[in-house]
Amino acid sequence: MAYGTEAKIPVLVGKPSPRRLHFSKVVNEYLHKENLDLQEERHANSQLRLAVYQRKVEVITLGPTWEGPYKVIEEVRPETYNLEDSDGKETKHPYTFVRTINSLDFCFC
Fold first, then answer.
1. 90 touches 83 (CB < 8 A)
2. Which residue of 65, 73, 103, 105 lies most exposed, with the fewest beta carbons within 10 A?
3. Would the pLDDT of 79 be above 60?
4. pLDDT per residue as tens digits for the range 2-22
């Protein structure tokens, strides 16, 4: 008895699991060695994916392309504007400008 109830042992306690039944030490060692051999390749692939991701983030953010002056083309809604750079290229997305106490800040929206 445990805490006023009867303890019951499941019928499956004596049976081994399928994982234990089909385990082979030779196959396990082979797969482990193969996994270690592919570790460098997986690491290189992850570094490549990271570089691609960082490049996408750099393109999306204002990063090095945010150099003025910019000209307001139209007001999309209050405090949100479509801009044009000095070469006459229109920005892809509207920008929201928010007034603060000391300055005019912008928010990429």
1. yes
2. 103
3. yes
4. 567 777 766 666 677 888 888
